[in-house]
Amino acid sequence: MKAVYVPWLHMHQPMVWHNGKLMSNLQKMLLASDSKESWEAKLMARAYKNPAKYVLELSKKGFKPKIMLDFSGILLEALAGMKEMLEKTEVNGEVIGDIISLYKEVMDKYPNAIEFAGTAYSHCYFPAIPEDDWSLQIEEWKNVFAELFGQKHLKKVKGFWLPEMGVPSKDKLGKLIEVLKDNGYEWMILPIEALKGERQLGFEQRIMITSQPHFIEADGEKFPVIFRVKYDFIDQQAGCDANGIYQKALMAAKIFSYKSSKPALVVPASDGENGNVMMNEFFPNTFVPFFSKKYEDVGSMTITEFLKKYYSNKGKIMPDGSVELSFEGSSWLGSHENWLGGDKRIEMKKKVDELSKDFHKIKKPTEKMKKFLLMAETSCYVYWNMDYWFDQGEEMILNAKKIFKKE
Fold this sequence. Notes:
Helix content is 48%, strand content 14%. The mean pLDDT is 96.
């Protein structure tokens, strides 16, 4: 095998206040009187189901599909809570049904097909929230995942996805590594934009880097990382057919062969429900054709399988070398501007920081208090730079404060 292709889909929906009730944005959209909005929600719901559906179909036929997934904790909770609603939701005659139970079935029957990565409970942007809350976000995601899928499957979660791939500045990177290690994580995926001097790298240099794992180091802590391939190589969200994936994987293999005899790692990662391609085209046009055919020299594994097979020593992941990250940190869109730039975003960050301080002053906070703090840190409330989402963030903070006083 010369190259290993690993598709990765990231899934998330925020919580919103609608008619005085707290619900998933997905539920709010499904209930909308606007037919366009409700139809879009149905396609999103199907997108959340698709990985399990197509992995099950292909596996039953004897194929060996592989996929990496991460779901925010609030989305997992919402899908579980919307079970009855989704059992009455159809897209072109297909009933969406109980999504969580479908994943459980697939993970039990075909345990090596889907690998979940851990993430934050509420899809917070790590560089924008207090460091004291990083552990709370990570632990609460684990609690939700274990409750829905069981400790057996949680123990298999070894990789981590930073929401929006928000890499903290270098002075906080050691803290992040410490928190991830404390929670049992063994590696994380990063955007190549996080590398120091990334803009000066040539095309082949980027491919060389994304083709293998590396160590990052901070405050004496080392941690294995992989990088998703850049959109100029494979733009998963814009669309890519199976043969195109195969050709690009062979190209990566050729470039990487000048450095190593190991297979080149090729990981395109994108939102799984954002846009027409991901909701309607990716699985029938890319995923199914690729995994229905045996391509010469190009295969697939989950990332932990790949790391354990090609880069481990006595069970520990051991990349061949290290890389240095940008001092400022980054996201999968480059800078932090979409989460930390502008007067309104700065104002919201201050309010979240104050809310966090209030929470940490409480001697025995309840689970409800903690969840409302974590939900107030959802990145969507500032990312879109729109009054509707800023208002949602304000409402979440207001309700959290009320609960702090009541409980």
